[in-house]
Amino acid sequence: MDEQSQLLEAATDFAHYPGSHSDHSATQFLNRFPLPLIINALQTQFDVPGLESTLVQCLQRLFKTKLGASLIPQYMPFVQVGLQADSQAVRSLACKTVTCLLKNLDNSHTVAAHLIKEFNIYSLLLDCLINGNEDVAAAAINAIKKLASFPEGMDIVFPSTKGGDTDLGIIASQCSSLGRVRVLALVVKLFSVSTSAASAIYSLNLLKLLEAEIRSADDTLVTLSVFELLYELAEVEHGAEFLSKSSLFQLLSSIISDDSSDSILRSRAMMISGRILSKEITYSSIDEPCAKIVISSIDGRLQSLEDPSNRDEFETALESLGQIGLFIRGAKLLLSGTSPAARHVIDAAFDRQGPERHGRQLAALHALGNISGETRSESDIILDAEAEDNLLRLLYETASRSSKLTPSGLFLSVLQQDSEIRIAGYRMISGLVSRPWCLMEICSRQEIINIVTDPSTETTKIGMEARYNCCKRIHKSLTQSSGVSADPAFAVIAAKLQEAVGMGPYLHRKRVEAQPIVMTADRF
């Protein structure tokens, strides 16, 4: 009992030490309590209050040291037993120990792969993933992800022969809905490891598992979880390349167009579509009609979403069009045809019908900023002739239907609203002002110039920077436009813009001299 209390006290101190442990402190601890003694206590004295959790935390920190990690190969039977333990805390420890092993073998991947195979660690990790609690499942995914980060580990995770105990497709088909979601989460995490891992997943048709789960639509919560995984997949640098090769676009389009689907499912489908079509690499893997199908489905959905109760879905649709418009080819598609999908963005950007439409207008202004090229390189801002003609036509038609009559009136009305709307308005003008017609509209309104050149207009850092960037864009467009800059009428505007650019983005106050203050003396 005395030794047990000493171990508990020392393990508590080691586990809760505020800094990182060195190999020296790890050696001192192990000299007092050898690793076999700690493991034995963990296996046989689990009923002692607080002992198991303390030893688990202690071993986690011990194995993170270089000395501790070097001892793991000698105690692989303990890791093997730990992965099958009834205690979730011990299973989590075993999974994390595998990760420590893989991280600290000094790039000796062959040794690591040999140990994983010899002790059947990978299949036990998969069991932890499916049957463990949330912490155990997360630890198992991290260990498997680390295993797949080197070629020898890849051979274990993606064996050349199908149909074994570790075939992820078979495992997903045999477990519960929670287990399937966890297997799909593993697929997504492995997909992000490397292009080689992503290629292996694609060739093994594991992406089809996600599509099949969405098509089944038996459980809305499960479907939403899979959508979240798809969104995560679309965020991966090489994700769009492989996703665009699948039948995912057709599936997403059908969900967006399906009036019987839950609104939240349609919204997630639109967000994922926008994310994938915002990547340049996507367009090298799909043909244009495929992208147009997705845009058409979002366009059709926006036409049927005038009901105020559909506000969130409407805003999501606008945001997804904005994502598509980030890349020049996506922007061209949004502004092509006789009835471009971008008309919804432009209509909503200048619609001020009540506070309930604030979010809609904000989303539309940011989307218009993306489509017009605010985030693109200078060479990619201007689109092809058809797209530019449609952009010009839509803005003037919108202005003619309003009380403002001209685009400059619309721009001014945006800059006279609250801070959030103004920031989005700065982004929109920054993208549009590269067009000569827009530059003329802005320079024709002194009020717009006054707002973008006044450093006291904005009080937040993001607002100041957005205003300043807008001011720089207008000034640059003005100086590069020979037809406008040569006009003496614009000389005053150019000088004012030049002065504002030179002042910088942040609030600039003129120098104030110190002044004496005369006050009545305080008396007791």
Automatic annotation (TrEMBL):
List this protein's GO terms for biological process: proteasome assembly
One term under GO cellular component:
cytosol
Question: Which SUPFAM superfamilies does the protein's record reference?
Answer: ARM repeat
**According to the lineage, what is the superkingdom?**
Eukaryota
Which InterPro entries has this protein been placed in? ARM-like, ARM-type_fold, PSMD5
Q: What is this protein called?
A: 26S proteasome non-ATPase regulatory subunit 5
Organism name: Trifolium pratense
Species lineage? Eukaryota, Viridiplantae, Streptophyta, Embryophyta, Tracheophyta
